[in-house]
Structure of Hemerythrin-like domain-containing protein:
Amino acid sequence: MEMETPSVLKVEHEELHGELAHAMKSGGRTGEAAKAVAEVMHPHFLKEEEYALPPLGLLRALSTGTIESGMVEALKLTDRLEAELPTMLAEHEKIVAALERLAEAANAEDKPEYARFAERLIAHALTEEAISYPAALLIGRYLKAVLPKSS
C-alpha cells in the first residue's frame, strides 16, 4: 500500500506557502516579518511532508479495517515523528512567535489580510499539535499492535 500525505493537507500547505509568498512581496515591515516566518516555517514543513503527515494517508484504510503488510513502512515515519516531536513542537513555538510579529506588523501597516493569514497559520499549527501529530503517532502504535511480528 502506498503511503501518501492526504491531498487536502498537501493543498493546504501549498496555499499557505503561496499566501506567505504574497506577504513577503508586500514590502515594509510586513514583508520583512513574512520573510522571517518563511525562514523558520519552510524547513519545518519539509519535515512534516517527509515523515509527520504521510502516515495520515493510511487513516481511511485503517478505519475500514484494512491491514496490509506494506503498512509496516509507516513505522519508520511514526517512530521518527515520535523521536522528533519535541523538536517539532519547539519549531512551532518559533513559528508562532514569528507569526505574531507578522500580525503585529501587518496591523501596524494596515494590511489586515496578512494579519488574518498569520492567525490562520497559527491555527494550522495548533491543529497539527492537537490532531495531525497525535493521529500519526496513534497509527504507528496501532500498526505495532496489529501487524504480525517479524522474526
Notes: The mean pLDDT is 95. Residues 74-108 form the longest helix (35 residues).
